[in-house]
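Newbie here. two chains, one complex. Structure please?
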Amino acid sequence: MNHIIRRNNIKIFGDCEQVMFFVHGYGCDQSMWRYVTPTFEPHYKIVLIDLVGSGKSEKENYDYDRYSDLRSYAEDIIEICDLLNFKDIVYVGHSVSAMIGALIDVEKPDLIKDLILIGPSPCYVNDENYHGGFTKADIDQMLETLDSNYLGWSSTMAPVIMGNPERPELAGELENSFCQNDPKIAKHFARVTFTGDNRSDLKNVEVKSLIIQSNQDAIAGIDVGKYVHENIKNSEFVIIDAIGHCPHLSAPKATAFAIKNYLN
Amino acid sequence: MTNPPILDYKALYNAAPCGYFCTTSRGDIIELNETLLEFTNYEREDVVNKKQFRDFLTPGGKIFLETHFLPLLQFQGYVQEINFDFLRQDGTIFPVLVNAKIIKDDSGNYNFTLYTIVNISQRKSYEKELLKAKRDADDLTEKLSKSYQDLKLNAKLIQEQKSELETLNKYLKNKNSQLSDFAHIISHNLRSPVFNLHMLLDFYRESTEEEEKSMYINTIKQVAVQMDETLNELIDSLKIQEEFLITKEQLSFEDILEKITIMLTGDIKKTEAQITHDFSEVKTIVYSKVYLKSAMFNLLTNAIKYKAAHRAPKIHFKTFNAGDKIVLTVEDNGKGIDMKKHKNDLFGLNKTFHNNPDAKGMGLYMTKVQIEALGGKITADSEVNQGTTFKIVFRKNL
């Protein structure tokens, strides 16, 4: 049990019975929920995790094969719920974790009572009848860019800096940057996230769902949100006035309101 | 003197060697400086209120902006030294470092975000070289680490072979020392019985009575049988002793004593030696038959050989327990050894302490080697003209 709590850096707070389970998207960790959770803390048991490979999860022995499939992340979460005896949970997932929530419902129906998907995209790459927002070349270029520019330089040097015992202040600084993830793992996760195609899973989602769409999202645009809504039977769709792919950070009040409104 | 030029902040801002721009909370660019326009080849009216930061980024950059840059900016209010590729009007790119900061008014309301853009085209090419060098170094490290693993594996194999050779060598050495041991036992332990046979033959020849003659013949037969047995035992044990194992068996002290007494019948009769024993406390021992027989035989022949000049030898064998040890003592009333003189070399090779013609200086050395080989100890206590007591301490659990 301790192993799993360590593995996913599980944090639980709030005294109520009803579990509200928040899962962050690609690039960040559980701290991205900090502006939203205060709204729900008085009425829910709040559960936060870091996906394996992100944030302060266990990164030693990261299994690249296992985490090449979003289903493995779904299995991790099911395992956590079994272990802590969580039932009929409210699941709030952002971006890739919205899709992970959908996969959990396919894998283990009835675990999730309400599925909240923030900025979901089942597939980022366009094809004949689908507009994911990016071409295959865009994604390849993004991965290349991640590799050679952003993650390449800073992350190549970050471990060197962080491993510098004579300058502990640098390590602290980098640690505080919540989007600093292990570069090799981050790149792997980026590939899994942005090259995946889970469109066929959507029709198997049975649970009552809410899709929250930011009205300006360069990663998962409104068309993509609508597509998800059309393919999940019991879903509601709400567009909120927010900028960017992380409305829970840029517009936390509007995001919390949309969730609260739906749950009530 | 000329007056210093009057600072024109607007001119400074526009001519600064880095790009500036400012966005609303919604991301629309509401102001930018001339330098940034130069960097990008845009006209001011094409950008202000028409473009956002993300419009200057490649698709990959946009994803990084949304997944890393903006969350970090919203989270901590500023972002520093993030590397993007920046798009010019013609679609070409140049690398930049971006710093950004959210500006709030006095009551904490979000006003706008300030961005600074530094063109890093030149150092970027160095960084690329560095990155390439690092990747090459990583590859090399990986290769080296693999070679190291191979070497380690080989070293392990060699170590294993070495240890096998050492074991074999140890085995051969042991075998060798056993063989030389047995050569000693044969040459030494058969000398006395042969000498005894000669003596018995002399008695036989000198004897005139038929009854006595037939008794000597009988005894000669018995000595021959015992010699034969001893030889067979030695040969058997040579065959059996593989893998450093010395065969151990349950042995009766009384039986062994009886057998060696028969082999020495001639000596005993000639010297009128009296041999007694008390094996009541410890009757048996699990030990090597060859070694025990050899040890007791040597001690008995010694006691007879080194008898006092004017009295018949009295030799007493006794066993007792001492903790986890068994002790065998052989006490005689012989001429004794000057322990002060010979304390250290009593058990040495080729030492004789008397001018006895029979002493070959082999018996005590051999006995000590054999006893110690099985974890035991042999000591002596003696007084000149009073007698000698040898004490063998055997380990019970071999």
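Moderator note: The first helix of chain B runs from residue 9 to 15. The first strand of chain B starts at residue 19 and ends at 24. Thread marked as resolved.
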